[in-house]
Amino acid sequence: MRITINGSPSLLAGSLDDVRAHAAGAHVDGFGGYWLAQTGLVDALTAFCAIAPDTGTMELGTAVIPTFPRHPTMLAGQALSTQAVVGGRLALGIGLSHKPAVEDRLGMAFERPVRHLMDYLEILQSLLETGGADHTGEVFSAHMEAGGRPTDTPPAVLVAALGEQTLRVTGRRTDGTVLWLVGPKTIGSHVSPRIREAAAEVGRPDPRVVCSLPITVADDEAEVRELHSMLLAGYDELPSYRAMLDREGADKVGDVSVVGNEDSVREQLASIAAAGATEFAAAEIGRNPDESARTRELLKSL
Question: Is residue 181 one of the residues assigned to a domain?
Answer without folding.
Answer: yes
